[in-house]
Amino acid sequence: MASKKGIAITAIILAAITGASFFVWIIPQQNDTTFIVTDYENYLDGAKGIHEILQESTEIEYQKLVNDEITPEEYIESADVTSTQATAQISEFVTSKPPEEWQDSYISYMDAMKKFNSYLGETKVLANLIKNESSQEEIDETIQKIESLKAESAELIKISDDSRPG
Hints:
Number of strands: 0
Distance between the termini: 43 Å
Order of helices and strands: HHHHH
Structural class: mainly alpha
Strand content: under 5%
Number of domains: 1
Shape: globular
Helix content: over 70%
């Protein structure tokens, strides 16, 4: 069982990320927004930090779902918020325009975020299967997809780390 302090800290972190994501979405869309990044290593490290927080909070909620500590509806709501935040991160990667020596690392990390977003989608499928009392076979098949997407995302992060310049 998670402590109240841990839950509070997670909630504060998620609120901060949600606020930052909301800010990204309220920027006018009629002009092409480009994030100007001059320290590509620190930017990527920051994105990794946010991604790790999203992964940890998702894992906590996912375990609560499979342990029947929260309802599928509560899980889906949480996963939707996380997916919005992941989408904002992906958008920042698309518009950051790193120099050639950083492109492979950035592209791999962006692909890792996309796999993470697909992972979130599959966990929502699982929540719906649980909600609808689907067969154990369907549930097991979805859990396999979830684990596969999680592993693919982790592998892409490793590729990103390995392709960082000097």
